[in-house]
Fold:
Amino acid sequence: MSATPTEIACSGIWCRFQDPAIGNLLILIAAVIGVFGSYWIYHKKSKDREASIRSALAAEISTIDKMDKLAEAWVEDGYDGRNKKIPKSEIPPPSHLTTTIYNQNASQIGELDSKEVEKLVEFYRAVEYAKSLTAYLREEGDDAPVNAHEALISLFLRYGDARKDIVEMLNGEKDPSEVEIDDATRKIGGGIELSEREG
Structure:
């Protein structure tokens, strides 16, 4: 028997790829690799985006670290909000309490853990209230009611610990369950003015 032209042309390992079963298996393997590769790329991009959001928010929150120190200086100088109001010239402009990165990434913050999102929203609610309160006090000055001055001092004093906890949470150093945004900060941040500063 003599060899057919197909048998002559097909010799070695390459002949096995002409078998439809092997060809289908190779297509299946390529498809599985493609699906897993796409998922891995999507997952990596998602994690990179999440890390970028965390890093940007931590940087923004870290830049507004002077508020708690400012409130401590006010208290040392005898400005308690009740008996001695904060001078208008010492109240920082609202722009010093920046929320630009938070606002620009609001739609992407949901990519973070839900407990982290909850803490961030509570914290930034307090920051937004502090911004409106500083704007109000800079405009009204001594004409502003005593409890507005008192609320600003109280908020700034409590703000420092919450700020540090949030930055540690975003850096992965603290679990969201360990982040404390105390009730007074929540109340003040929610717009409830204190008539008597809590110690």
Summary: The chain has seven helices and no strands. Residues 189-199 have pLDDT under 50 and may be disordered. The radius of gyration is 30 Å.
